[in-house]
Every structure is written in structure tokens, then in C-alpha cells.
Amino acid sequence: MEQTKKRWDLKDTLVVLRLLVGWHFLYEGVIKLYNPDWTSFGYLASAQGPFESFFLWMSSESMIGIADWGNKIALIFVGLTLLLGVFERVGALVAIGLLALYYLAHPAFPWVTQLNVEGSYWFVNKNLIELVACILLFQMPTADRFGLKRLFNTKKEITKTELS
């Protein structure tokens, strides 16, 4: 009987992508949770582009607490779902929503002055790239390959060696 060597495939790469994105979200959420001085006020109040008024409303005194806690909870939720491989499609959808908001608050449009950003962008920035990665994670879930879903899966998968 000959053994077949398992090759690294697309699902394995997607597992790594899911873990990296999950770690990024979880870390960002935990850092914000444990920093009593953190607030999204500066980011929201300096928003630009076509949705500026919406983000200014979110930075208002009556909404900033909700925006801050919503951001922390959503970041931690996304991080845990993607890292643990449970409810990963829901986590990916929440991530897509958050990243869309981050992008729209400071869009990388050439006609918009770039404030509060780390680099110089032209339409595409890191938020948009991570958003597309999360769309891919939503379309191709990998918890059956690596995650709690696989651990608690009651259906046993039959491998080629078990058939022979």
C-alpha cells in the first residue's frame, strides 16, 4: 500500500488567512477593550467623503459610547469566530460590515484629502483588501478543515485508505 503525500492546497491557505484575519480582529478588539482611554471619536470626527455626516453623527456625545462598545464587541466577536472556526460565516459578514464602515469613513478616493491614515492610497487601502479577504472567507468556510466545527463534527469522513 502506498501512502500519498498530502499537498498544501487552497483550503489550507484559506485556513491560514482565516487565522491571520481572526488574530488581527481579536487583537484589535482586546487592545481597545483594555485601554480605558481608547475611543473612536477621533477617527469618526475626522471622517471624510460622501458619508461624512453619518460618521459625524456617530461621533456625537449621545452615540460615541455605543459606537465604541459596538466596535469592541464586533472586533472580538469576529476574532473569536475566525480563530476558533465556529460561526465563521457570521463572523466574516460582521467583518465585512466593519471594514466597509472603516473604508467609508476614510475612503481612499483621490479627490478626498487623506487624514488619519497610515499611508498614501488611491482607491485601494488595507481596509478594502481585508474586506475582500473576508468575502473570500465567507464564500469558502474552512472550519471543517481546522476549527471547533471539525472537532465536534459527528459525521465521520471516510478517507481513501479506509475504502481500500
Number of domains: 1
- Note the overall shape: globular
Strand content: under 5%
State the helical fraction: 55-70%
Return the string of H and E elements. Answer: HHHHHHHH
- Count of DSSP-assigned helices: 8
Q: What are the segments in which pLDDT stays under 50 over at least 5 consecutive residues?
A: none
Radius of gyration, in Å, reads: 20 Å
Report, as a whole number of angstroms, the end-to-end distance.
Answer: 9 Å
Largest sheet: none
Number of strands: 0
Mean pLDDT: 87
Specify the structural class: mainly alpha
Protein described:
It is globular and about 60 Å long. The chain has one domain. With 164 residues, the chain is mainly α. The chain has helices at 10-33, 41-45, 52-58, 64-84, 88-105, 126-139, 148-151, 160-163. 24% of the residues are buried. The longest helix is centred in the first third of the chain and has 24 residues, at 10-33.
Summarize, please:
The protein is an all-alpha fold and 164 residues long.
Keywords, separated by commas or semicolons:
164 residues; mainly alpha; 8 helices; globular
Provide the fold topology.
Elements: H1 10-33, H2 41-45, H3 52-58, H4 64-84, H5 88-105, H6 126-139, H7 148-151, H8 160-163
Helix pairs in contact: 1-4, 1-6, 4-5, 5-6
